[in-house]
Amino acid sequence: MQCAHLSVRYPDQDSPVLHDLSITIQKGETTLLVGPSGSGKTTFLHVLAGLLPDTIEADVTGHWSTEGTVGILFQQPDDQFCMQTVGAEIAFSLENRQIARSEMEERIPLLLARVGLDLALTTPIAELSGGMKQRLALACVLALEPDILLLDEPTAQLDPSGQRTMMHLIEELHRDPDLTLVLIEHQIDQCVTFADRVLVFESGRLLLDDTPYDVFHQQRDVMTALGIAMPLLYPYGLETLPELSGQACHLKKRPVERRAVGTERTFELTRVRVKRGKRTILNDFSWTTFSGQWIMLVGRNGAGKSTVLETLAKLLPSQGDIRLFDTPLRKWSDRTYYQQVGFVFQQPDFQFLKQTVTDELAISCATFDPERVQTALRHYRLTDVADQSPLALSLGQKRRLSVATMLLERKAVLLLDEPTFGQDAETTAHIIDVLHQAREAGTTVIMVTHDMELVHRYADRVVVIGEERVQFDGTPLELFQEEALLEQNQLFRPVSFLYQQLEEVKHRAGKRHTARAY
Amino acid sequence: MQENDTPLARINPAVKLGMLLYVMVLLITTSSLQVTFALTVLAAVGVCSSGWRLPMLLLRLVPYGVLFLLTFWMMAAFGKGSAELWTFGWFRITEESLDHAWLIATRMLAFVFLSLTFVATTDPTRFVMSLIHQCRLPVRLAYGFLAGLRFIPIFRQAIRTIRQARRVRRQRSIWPWQTFFAISLPLFTTSIIRSEQIAIAMEARQFQTNRTYYVRPIVTRFDLLFFGLVSSIATSLRLFV
């Protein structure tokens, strides 16, 4: 697979996305592509997949050629299917290759087994979780029997346990000597160990082309300057990480300093039953939250974390007594309630109501004040796109705007559904910073998350939801001791916690490198 | 649309559709009340054997029952005719308008029964495949339709979120069409982007019209027998009642 002097420009853009690129990838190699968002990684993958310029309109110059068939796996699990059921979806790939029907019957179960899915062929795709959908999509691509497999951030939209399963599958594929893998991935920790080569992209050009060790160790400063997420441990392991390295300093960071939680009660729930449709999510749920408390809801996929948030936001009916400031929920009018309570939805697209970013912020102020809108635009770094439609923004910008609309007025309670999900490191840091400030100002922040590093560093209180009850309610450090509980709920301890624990053990033992914590 | 294990579900969807269309044509071409009644009874037999349990079936028929009454009232009270039966204000019921009302309302009900029979016993994938094989529907169109079907649950979820967001952000619209635009605009923009992505994904999986088929409905003898039976019953009802 090679390309020479490859340049790509999209019809509606002035500058090329890829600029004079010459790369040769050998058969059987596993290549990792990294770079800031918008640096042309995905476009490069689309060129290799033969989608440009026939399927996606673009101006392509230079030479490129690929030997063998190419399969590509996309980022969004939902946007890769065209059939209703699992069996028919895999069959779609086989139909395209004109495989005889009798042979399909044999191949489909084999492909499902290969990606570790144990499902009936008639299972509707809509019933699968994100992780299962992505594995099914991989099975569909493998059904094409590709010589070259391109993976465009296959784990970006998955929860941690889905990410791990997917990465194990990819690592297994890497062992196949005939299969060439090209991978874009932000979860570098999990794939850097098996990548043969790393290509670093920067605004359409190839910046570095080297082994993972050279890129992530020797050129560490260059990478950090580009704002690329770095592996937490690589090239070391948890136990061999030198104490003075940058990574160790990062991992040693203790939970942030903050004010004590307030004593004013916000929500008070007594024996509440939370339901979604006919399914009971929580039974007999009693709970009190306090001002200035940062609570994180965790649990496995489909445990009902979002439903709990929607119930608190007065968007779903519930049985039992829910009070905000000692007033039952049903006595609050919508107008006064939502002055006190903000809600940030998981999909920002659907919470925008106006045609421009400025208007969107303007309707969020109680009284219109252009000065405040301008300040907010600057603070959330949206000044450049102030007159654009909110729907035309990038993923990170959308997320910042959705948080901004809820935080313009001070709220007593802020509910957030996975606010950092699928965001790059920069946006995540910005959002967390804003939420931290809100918490310090006395807002109760209740958020659903999968990011255990965030739980470790910021949560005052963490609640595990699963099997119709609250399985755990306490501090993050207490939670991380409960090994069985974590495993049961598909949760993982963050690397920073493990490292700190190890350090402590070493410290107590009084000598280095001999202690083994686990 | 769903599939169950009733005999009606086993019939080739294209044959089934043809059969229902034939009965519909018979209904349109008759102005005799007796014939319409007889064909409605036939359609009712169809919907009763579609595998829905009776309470469920009645529940689903409630909105159509209301529609039946409305149609009946409209046709009866505002129709033309000379033999006056009852007048009140604008309403004027005549013998002719009453006959006409019965005909139209019953015909409508028969159409509802036939359509429900089809919807209740047909799997969309098998239906589209049957259209490809038996009616030569272009493959690209057919697969586009199937991909589009996946949007229905996605849309439902999206509309729910938009409504919730409007509530949380205290945005009430004065006119109903404002709500319509507020909901449909983000829905359209996101679905354009998504359908483009699905098209790219299908293309990347080497989608082509030259293909084999995993689901390949064929017309069996049972299908033909069934078609013959029902069409002869319907025809004789049309001709001899």
Uncertain regions spanning at least 5 consecutive residues of chain B: none
Kindly report the average pLDDT value of chain B: 85
Largest interface, chains and sizes: A-B, 56 and 44 residues
- Give start-end ranges of low-pLDDT stretches of chain A: none
- Secondary-structure element pattern of chain B, one letter each: HHHHEEHHHHHH
Name the strands of the widest sheet of chain A in spatial order.
Answer: 5-6-7-3-8-9
Descriptive account of the structure:
The complex is a heterodimer of chains A (518) and B (241). With 518 residues, chain A is of the alpha/beta class. Chain A contains 19 helices and 19 strands. Chain A has helices at residues 41-48, 86-96, 101-114, 130-142, 160-174, 188-191, 212-218, 220-226, 246-252, 305-312, 334-340, 357-362, 370-379, 395-407, 425-440, 452-458, 476-481, 483-488, 495-509, and strands spanning 2-9, 18-24, 30-34, 59-65, 70-73, 148-152, 180-184, 197-202, 205-210, 265-276, 279-290, 294-298, 318-324, 327-328, 341-344, 413-417, 444-448, 461-466, 469-474. In chain A, the strands form 4 sheets. A 6-stranded mixed beta sheet of chain A has the order 5-6-7-3-8-9, sandwiched between helices. Chain A has a 6-stranded mixed beta sheet with strand order 15-16-17-12-18-19, with helices on both faces. In chain A, α2 (86-96) packs across α3, α2 (86-96) runs parallel beside α4 and α9 (246-252) packs across α19 (495-509). The radius of gyration of chain A is 25 Å and the shape is globular. Chain B has 241 residues and is mainly alpha-helical. In chain B, 74% of the residues lie in helices and 4% in strands. Chain B has a two-stranded antiparallel ribbon with strand order 1-2. The mean pLDDT of chain B is 85. Chain B is built from 10 helices and 2 strands; from the N terminus they run ααααββαααααα. Chain A: It comes from Exiguobacterium undae. Chain A: Belongs to the ABC transporter superfamily.
